[in-house]
C-alpha cells in the first residue's frame, strides 16, 4: 500500500518506519531521500529522531490512510527492540516497572508526551499526558504510545500481560471494538485521563531480555576474578551502564560478575576510586556526544544518567569550565 503524501526529508523514527514497512506500506513516499532508507534507519548508529519528527510522521500517515485507529495498528506492530535511545536502558532493567520508569524519564527529557506511573491500592497506572494542546494527530499518537508500551511489556516479560483495563479520554467511537482487540482487556471511554491500568504485581515481572543482554559469564574465583576486573574492563562496564541514574559500585560488580570487595581492590591498585572513574567516563562520553552528531542536551543527559538537561549542563561546566554549547562550537571550529 503506497502512502502518496511525500514529506520533506528529515530523520524519522526508525521504529515507525519499520512498523509501516512490515504492514505493507510503501514508506519511500514518506522518506524519499536515499539516506532515509528503512534498512539504514535500523542501524544502531543512526541518529535518533525526536518526538517532533515522530509526531510529524504519524500525522502524515493518519492523513494519508484516513484510518482513525492507525495509532492502535502502529503501536501493536512496533518492534520494542527498536525503541532507540530509550530501548537499551529499558530492556536492561530488572523488572517491567523499572523499564517503564526509564522510558518515562526519557520522554520527560525529550519534551514529548509525558508518561506518569502511579499506584492506587493494588493498581498500577501508566498514564500518558499530552505535551501540547489537542491536534489532529493527538489521539492516534496516544493510542500508539499506549499500545507500544503494552507490546514492550509482553515481549520482554514473555507473559500474556493482560491489563486490568484501559482508560481513554475520548467518547466511545464507532470503531471502539478495535480498542478492545488491541489491548485485549476492558476499555472505558470518556475517562479523565489516558492510561493502562495494570495490577501492581505486573510491574514486578522480570524482564527475560535482561538475561540475554550479554553472554553469561562463567563463575570466576580467585585469580580469575582479579583478572576479570582490570581497569579497562571497569571502564568498559561504566560505558555500558552510564545511563543508569543510580550507578553504583554494586551494579558494576554485578555486571562484571565479581564481588564488590574485589572491584574496590582493583580500583585502589589502579590508583583511582569509583566515583572519580565514573566522572571521568561520563566526561569522556559527554565530549564524544557533543562532537559526534546533533544530539540535544536532553538526549545526552539521558544517556549519561542525569535527571535533566540542567543537571548535565552544570556537571559539564564543572568538568571542563565550558558550557556544552561552547564546547560543541569550539570542536566544530577549532582555533588555527
Automatic annotation (TrEMBL):
The organism that produces this protein has a lineage beginning with: Bacteria, Pseudomonadati, Pseudomonadota, Betaproteobacteria, Burkholderiales
Which species is this UniProt entry from? Cupriavidus oxalaticus
Question: Which keywords fit this entry according to its UniProt record?
Answer: DNA-binding, Transcription, Transcription regulation
Keyword DNA-binding carried by entry: yes
User: Matching InterPro entries, A to Z?
Assistant: AraC-type_N (IPR032687), Homeodomain-like_sf (IPR009057), HTH_AraC (IPR018060), Tscrpt_reg_AraC-type_HTH (IPR020449)
Q: Supply the Pfam families for this chain.
A: Arabinose_bd (PF12625), HTH_18 (PF12833)
The protein in question is named AraC family transcriptional regulator
Q: Which GO terms describe its cellular component?
A: cytosol
Top-level taxon? Bacteria
Q: Where is this region: Disordered?
A: 29-52
What GO molecular function annotations does the UniProt record carry, in alphabetical order? DNA-binding transcription factor activity; transcription cis-regulatory region binding
Span of domain HTH araC/xylS-type: 232-330
Amino acid at each position: 500500500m503506497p502512502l502518496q503524501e511525500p514529506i520533506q526529508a528529515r530523520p524519522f523514527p526508525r521504529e515507525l518506519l519499520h512498523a509501516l514497512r512490515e504492514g505493507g506500506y510503501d514508506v519511500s513516499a514518506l522518506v524519499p531521500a536515499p539516506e532515509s532508507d528503512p534498512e539504514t534507519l535500523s542501524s544502531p548508529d543512526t541518529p535518533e529522531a525526536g518526538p517532533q519528527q515522530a509526531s510529524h510522521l504519524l500525522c502524515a500517515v493518519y492523513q494519508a490512510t484516513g484510518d482513525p485507529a492507525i495509532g492502535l495498528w502502529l503501536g501493536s506492530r512496533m518492534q520494542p527492540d527498536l525503541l532507540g535511545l530509550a530501548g537499551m536502558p529499558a530492556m536492561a532493567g530488572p523488572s517491567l516497572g523499572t523499564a517503564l520508569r526509564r522510558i518515562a524519564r526519557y520522554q520527560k527529557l525529550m519534551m514529548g508526551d509525558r508518561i506518569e506511573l502511579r499506584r492506587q491500592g493494588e493498581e498500577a497506572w501508566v498514564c500518558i499526558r499530552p505535551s501540547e494542546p489537542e491536534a489532529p494527530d493527538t489521539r492516534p499518537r496516544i493510542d500508539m504510545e499506549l499500545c507500544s508500551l503494552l507490546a514492550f511489556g509482553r515481549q520482554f516479560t514473555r507473559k500474556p500481560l493482560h491489563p486490568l483495563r484501559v482508560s481513554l479520554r475520548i467518547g466511545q467511537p464507532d470503531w471502539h471494538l478495535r480498542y478492545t482487540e488491541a489491548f485485549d482487556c476492558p476499555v472505558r471511554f470518556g475517562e479523565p485521563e489516558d492510561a493502562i491500568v495494570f495490577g501492581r504485581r505486573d510491574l514486578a515481572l522480570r524482564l527475560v531480555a535482561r538475561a540475554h543482554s550479554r553472554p553469561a559469564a562463567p563463575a570466576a574465583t580467585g585469580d580469575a576474578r582479579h583478572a576479570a576486573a582490570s581497569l579497562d574492563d571497569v571502564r568498559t562496564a561504566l560505558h555500558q551502564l552510564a545511563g543508569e541514574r543510580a550507578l553504583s559500585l554494586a551494579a558494576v560488580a554485578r555486571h562484571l560478575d565479581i564481588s564488590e570487595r574485589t572491584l574496590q581492590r582493583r580500583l585502589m591498585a589502579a590508583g583511582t576510586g569509583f566515583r572519580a572513574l565514573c566522572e571521568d567516563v561520563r566526561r569522556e562520553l559527554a565530549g564524544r556526544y557533543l562532537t559526534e552528531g546533533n544530539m540535544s542536551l536532553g538526549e545526552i543527559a539521558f544517556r549519561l544518567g542525569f535527571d535533566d538537561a540542567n543537571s548535565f549542563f552544570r556537571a559539564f561546566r564543572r568538568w571542563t569550565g565550558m558550557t556544552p554549547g561552547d564546547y560543541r562550537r569550539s570542536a566544530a571550529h577549532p582555533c588555527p
